[in-house]
Amino acid sequence: MHIPDGLVPPLWCGLGYAVSGGLLWGACRRLQRATVDTLAIVPRLALLTA
What we know:
The chain is about 70% helix and about 0% strand. The protein has about 50 residues and is mainly alpha-helical. The longest helix is centred in the middle third of the chain and has 24 residues, at about 10-35.
């Protein structure tokens, strides 16, 4: 999706990056702590990062 320059305020962009970074961090920590069901979490992490 392409958004024209200046359409989205910088504050919204920063908040979006912060939220997605937090979700990615949480998913990576959960993947790291997983012991038995690691293979079930990998597709979810891939969907989150896509």
